[in-house]
Amino acid sequence: MKQTHVKPADGKLGILVVGNGAVATTFMTGVLMARRGLAKPIGSMTQYDKIRVGQGADRQYLTYNEIVPMARLDDIVFGCWDVYPQNAFQAAMYAEVLQEKDILPVKDELQQIVPLKAAFDKNYAKRIDGDNVKSLPAKDAGKCMPTRWQMVEMLREDIRQFKKEKGCSRIVVLWAASTEIYIPVEEKVHYRLSDLEAAMKTNDCEHVAPSMCYAYAALAEGAPFIMGAPNTTVDIPAMWELAEKVHMPIAGKDFKTGQTLVKSGFAPIIGVRKLGLSGWFSTNILGNRDGLVLDEPANFRTKEVSKLSTLETILKAEEQPDLYQDYYHKVRINYYPPRNDNKEGWDNIDIFGWMNYPMQIKINFLCRDSILAAPLCLDLCLLSDLAARAGRFGIQRFLSFFLKSPMHDYTCGEEAVNNLYQQYTMLKNAIREMGGYEADEEID
User: Fold this and answer.
1) What is the pTM for the complete model shown?
2) Is residue 215 within 8 Å of 225, Cβ to Cβ?
3) Cβ pair 187, 216 in contact under 8 A
4) Which of 10, 81, 285, 439 could make a disulfide contact with 429, Cβ separation 3.0–4.6 Å?
5) CA–CA gap between residue 427 and residue 431 (Å, rounded)
């Protein structure tokens, strides 16, 4: 390993997950099983990927932890918040993603992961009905729920207590909870940190989502924050300002698991081969709690905006009007309980080629949503912790590889990078730079 300015990954890394459902418990169980040597963390870039460093005679292919100091799986301590009080073992059994034989060996550890009370507003997830939620002291019992600012203070105290009780040297906060209703960016509230704080203190529940309270609390307590849903949460200039003020990394938004992973990988094939696109229709059926929440139109709108953003930055009409002018792009998600976590993503792609002759491509991806999301959770947490120790703060564009709708500064006309191969180049270059090597690949 070269000499780098990255601080060593000494001590325990606390990972506090917002949500204790299918994704969170699959992630936790997999890590606990892997560090006992009872499972393999397949799908995790940080555990398997190798990057070339150096050129010519100096060329080497090294794993991430050979290039930069990464936290080890043995160093991870899990905690969570959830609106349901069941511990991680009970929640993992209920989710029915993993078989009992793959949960029981770590039952004792999972049982010790008991959800803290969640900062929750039912208006943001109408299909959720848990009662393990934060409430005001008895003297304020007449009020409905804590104000947004009170939520922030309660969450900050949770983080401090967890860090102290578990003896963690560092904390990362990961959102793996449900998709909230869509909140358009409101300049008067979301552009300046002072305005966001004022809105929290006046309890502006229309413009300040509960997830924003988690993000604010995490950053204020010196913990990187990762948004794994398509929520507006950290996709606002006020949160970027906070991240820069406290010198903490933020990443988001929405785990890139099934259909969008395919789309961000396959669309470049069409673009590179200079084939035309008439339309791309994507539909999903999903039966877990995420599917239930997304069955509510206001929540689906948040997901739709995220999923629709992928193609437009890969196949650009202004660059190739003959090929990509006015193609039709439609995304659908359908709640279908019999499938539970086994999501089916179906894509119908209408393309055209030589002399405008039409062709079709059909992709049917029968995937397991949480099985694909779990390694992303691990990678995002470990790489966000790495970024913090490397002194990187604000939006972490190099983590776009793992996310459906990558963060970018839209206020100055910046465009998100959605091409999977360009995202991979950004990831590799960032690891190289943090490891003291030259970032020697270009994004064309």
Assistant:
1) 0.94
2) yes
3) no
4) 439
5) 6
